[in-house]
């Protein structure tokens, strides 16, 4: 029996390939698998696809492929990714040399009279995969992987459904699989909006604020309680956050200098049993600056620069006016 689109009988293909038709079938089976992974076609569609002079039109991250005769107004035959085009063209050149009279894009050689789709079941490639100890991926899995990759990449179910030639409902109920990557992205997006520690506002003291005033557990009795009014109170607030920047360290050093001036003007006698609030603030800021200084070289340089500016009378803008006012009262 002759193939109506080829003009050569199956036995003639056997003769032309001199007994090496099994190798040709293996190559074609591998090409079918790659084609299905690229286009999302099912096996039956791919096996019955006709060989044409294809015309490529750039589209998204690849190409829309049309028949060259109807390239302007003709329908899109299939879509491929741009990296696959060169390989597909090499296959077409090889295929035209071996099967010049066949009209099939994937002319598998089989018994005369058998339908094209019965000639492909992946058995040849599966056997080779078993011998090599690697997993065999069937066409159905390839199609499903492509669909889920598109869904993850685009995050657009409607676009993915259109590319996969499905309805959005079918895509989401039948083909879409749980994705660790999507779950991670959605989790990050959720907590970037919901986590109070990431949604910061400017605090009264140097730094940021993430919530309502809440004193730390080891807060000294003489320290001012947090109330979002007194800057010193922020130093013992659980919701206060230091900022990893030179500007923040400069502000801390300037605030410490302001408290030192206040302490020098305090009229309350200093005894062994009483510590002025200003002294508590200075001690707290010293602890913070000491941590920055000991953490790494960059932060140590920030602390040194901030202290040098204070000695030169170059204070942070947030506290310069208050310092000048207090010093003017001296």
TrEMBL record:
Superkingdom classification of source: Bacteria
CDD domains from the UniProt entry: DNA_BRE_C
Keywords, sorted A to Z: DNA recombination
InterPro entries: DNA_brk_join_enz (IPR011010), Integrase-like_cat_sf (IPR013762)
Name listed for the protein in its UniProt record: Phage integrase
Biological classification of the source: Bacteria, Pseudomonadati, Pseudomonadota, Betaproteobacteria, Burkholderiales
């Amino acid at each position: 029996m002759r193939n109506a689109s080829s003009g050569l009988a199956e036995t003639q293909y056997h003769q032309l390939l001199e007994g090496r038709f099994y190798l040709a079938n293996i190559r074609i089976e591998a090409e079918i698998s790659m084609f299905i992974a690229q286009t999302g076609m099912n096996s039956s569609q791919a096996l019955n696809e006709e060989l044409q002079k294809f015309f490529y039109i750039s589209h998204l991250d690849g190409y829309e492929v049309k028949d060259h005769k109807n390239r302007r107004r003709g329908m899109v035959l299939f879509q491929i990714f741009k990296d696959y085009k060169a390989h597909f063209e090499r296959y077409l050149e090889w295929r035209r040399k071996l099967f010049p009279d066949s009209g099939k894009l994937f002319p598998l050689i089989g018994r005369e009279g058998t339908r094209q789709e019965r000639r492909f079941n992946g058995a040849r490639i599966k056997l080779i995969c078993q011998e090599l100890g690697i997993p065999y991926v069937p066409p159905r899995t390839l199609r499903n992987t492509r669909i889920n990759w598109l869904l993850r990449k685009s995050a657009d179910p409607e676009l993915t459904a259109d590319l996969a030639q499905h309805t959005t409902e079918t895509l989401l109920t039948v083909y879409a699989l749980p994705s660790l990557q999507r779950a991670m992205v959605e989790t990050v997006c959720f907590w970037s909006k919901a986590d109070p520690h990431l949604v910061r506002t400017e605090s009264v003291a140097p730094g940021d604020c993430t919530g309502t005033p809440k004193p730390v557990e080891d807060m000294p009795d003489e320290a001012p309680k947090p109330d979002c009014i007194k800057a010193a109170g922020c130093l013992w607030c659980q919701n206060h956050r230091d900022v990893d920047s030179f500007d923040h360290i400069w502000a801390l050093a300037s605030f410490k200098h302001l408290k030192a001036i206040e302490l020098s003007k305090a009229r309350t006698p200093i005894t062994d049993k009483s510590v002025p609030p200003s002294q508590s603030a200075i001690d707290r800021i010293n602890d913070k600056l000491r941590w920055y200084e000991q953490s790494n070289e960059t932060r140590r340089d920030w602390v040194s620069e901030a202290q040098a500016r204070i000695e030169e009378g170059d204070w942070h803008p947030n506290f310069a006016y208050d310092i000048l006012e207090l010093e003017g009262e001296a």
